[in-house]
Amino acid sequence: MLVSEWVLKWALRLYPPLLLQRIWVKRFKKDFKGASIVVRKSLLNKNYNNSIFGGTLFATADPWYPLLFHQIFLRKGYRVIVWLKSAEIQYLKPAHTDLHFDIDIDDQTIADAERMLNSNGKFIRTFHIEMLNRHNEVCVNVQVEAYVRKLDIPAE
């Protein structure tokens, strides 16, 4: 579904799986070329060690690249299916404060994805996310592998 940055931001802010884990979209960048995300520490996502539960941090990294690529390619007239193919997470420091991160998709990455979609019908790329605490210290590193496939090309 083609939506504006504002509509998707508010839909995801109110989406129960994100809302209840205190995952908050601060903003989507123009044309969905990025996002700013925060996960707030609260009673709902705090673990035994008084830090943010690791499952919440993993869920925080999960949806953003697929959502961004989906909106980018819908605007270009493509029918695509997009998902997170794999992810790997490293917990470097306990998340005793809120965490935040920004995602950016540059024009070259979009051009590469479009070229791959037009040549073989799919695009797969790994992206890096660093979640920072209030002191801008890296607490979590996540490698996510986004998968984009044109729907008018048969899957292998």
SSE order, one letter for each helix or strand: HHEEHHEEHEE
Instruction: Give the biggest sheet.
Output: 3 strands, antiparallel
Number of strands: 6
Helical fraction equals: 25-40%
Number of domains: 1
CATH superfamily: Hotdog Thioesterase
**Coarse morphology:** globular
Strand content: 25-35%
Distance between termini? 25 Å
Helical element count?
5
Counting helices, strands and paired strands, the structural category is alpha+beta
Query: Biggest sheet: strands side by side, in what order?
Result: 1-2-4
Using the coordinates shown, work out and report the CATH topology. Thiol Ester Dehydrase, Chain A
**CATH architecture type:** Roll
Rg over alpha carbons: 16 Å
* CATH structural class: Alpha Beta
Q: Mean pLDDT, nearest integer?
A: 96
Unreliable segments of 5+ consecutive residues: none
